[in-house]
Amino acid sequence: AQSVTQLGSHVSVSEGALVLLRCNYSSSVPPYLFWYVQYPNQGLQLLLKYTSAATLVKGINGFEAEFKKSETSFHLTKPSAHMSDAAEYFCAVTRNTGNQFYFGTGTSLTVIP
Amino acid sequence: EPEVTQTPSHQVTQMGQEVILRCVPISNHLYFYWYRQILGQKVEFLVSFYNNEISEKSEIFDDQFSVERPDGSNFTLKIRSTKLEDSAMYFCASRPTSGGAGELFFGEGSRLTVL
Predict the structure, then answer these.
(1) Closest by Cβ to A34, choosing from B4, B103, B109
(2) Can you tell me the mean pLDDT for A30-55?
(3) Mean pLDDT of all residues in chain B?
(4) Which of residues 13-52 of A touch B (CB under 8 A)?
(5) Do B48 and A95 touch (CB under 8 A)?
(6) Is the pLDDT of residue B16 over 90?
(7) Is the Cβ–Cβ distance between B55 and B65 less than 8 Å?
(8) CA-angle at A8, arms to A100 and B41, nearest 5°
(9) Do B98 and A99 touch (CB under 8 A)?
């Protein structure tokens, strides 16, 4: 069975501070992992994805995530938060032969000026 | 850049009425999905569709839901008799292939409000 757990439904950071959004996965087979971002009143947009090519994945808008198999984690980071980063972030997992994506409950990021 | 488009962006309906939500997936994609997001909650899988038939569906996707690809471009979600708890944002998504590392491409959603 595949699933992801996002720790922290709400995260607040100051502008310019480090952003860390946590995601742990559960998968019986090597997973493919994704981070999506949802801005207010918009659909989900892909930030980055892990496809087993490299454990450190760089995405759009300065975000990156590191796949750690030993910790079953795929945490999302950004060195310096910007006001425009305020959004809902979803971690998702699928598998090589799978069809369905499993989403986490989401983390709402607030950036404080 | 190709995108998934959804209509309507917002629909208000009375309980018990039928609703059809429409989606135009990206043209060369073969796998189509509907997801639901109740306000403040997680994004939930409803159904996936391939080769003119349902390939997977969740427990949420009961007999009051149906999907159809009536022509070569549209992909619709029908709710036969809406309930208050069907109020949610419904997202259509498409994908060129099944499995592997290909991501889902989402539309901007259709907000359904059932009164």
Answers:
(1) B103
(2) 88
(3) 92
(4) 32, 34, 36, 41-46, 49, 51-52
(5) no
(6) yes
(7) no
(8) 50
(9) yes
